[in-house]
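User: Teach me something about this protein's shape.
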Amino acid sequence: MDGGRTVEFHCKDILEWTKQEFGNEIYRNSWTLEAKMDTSEGARIFSDPSNSDGWIDQQNLIQERHGEDTYVVPIVLYSDKTRVNDKGLNIYPIRAALLSVDYEKRTQCQTEMGFIPIPTFPNNISEKEKRKQRLAFLHTCIEFFLAPLKHASAFVHSWQDPNGVTRKVVPRVILWVGDNPEQCDMTLVKHKHCPICLIKKTDLNTMGEKGASRRVRDHKEIVELAEKGKHCKKLAEERAEELAVHIQECALHGFADEDFSPPYQWFTYEELHDHEQGTFLYIVNTIKDVLRSGIDGTERMLNQKMTTLNSRLIQD
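Assistant: First, the predicted structure itself:
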């Protein structure tokens, strides 16, 4: 609903698409079934999404539940609000691909899955209320879109792979690609914060000492607490302020076994956040300095800024 009006949300069945894409013959020589760690000279490297913690952790969890011959069908979703003409017309598409497909094929074969309606609001409501309603609207659409996949994530399915071999699989969203404001909207994290860890821009110099990442169960507990009455709502608001999240049900929640999953794994497959380094904001800050410096000295500056981080990762 948009200001009391009913709007249409057009999208494809993501579960049916996933099954068809998993068995698509055009990927016969361009896909990976199983995730695994990769190393070079004793250090872990990330050369492909199949090296990612998000995929590996989900694979380990599913194989513990259903047996070692069960695999993840890893899905990546993309979304970005886009202006399409000089009159201010915007569209909000969702695209999908399988992370198990090689990068080139994955880029070529992205599929338009739907278009999120963009709500409008009357001028007599506050910006805070507009944001609240906009987030509620966004998550209502995402919940509808992901519902078949959430249900399917609790069961093992027998699907044919691109080579015609029947596999025992469980489909999961591993990554959702978007810019920082959109990542915050999707996770219901307040803007100007990392959607994964709790580091602030002002704390970048001490990021190796900062605390835990957000987890699905923490956000769910805040929402549940807020519904228990006035006193509990105040406690929920204090906790939400600590975690920099909005008190609202998140459409990304609801997958099977999610309480045991890594935090918001669909936004990054780099291991760096598992070290609670605040890497997202660290890299953003680094890139700004590099861009200001121009071409000269770029390589030197990047090497200098990343030396401490790389040393920490190798030691760990």
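Now, about its shape. The chain has a mean pLDDT of 77. The longest strand covers residues 166-177. If you'd like, I can walk through any region in more detail.
User: That's plenty for now, thanks!
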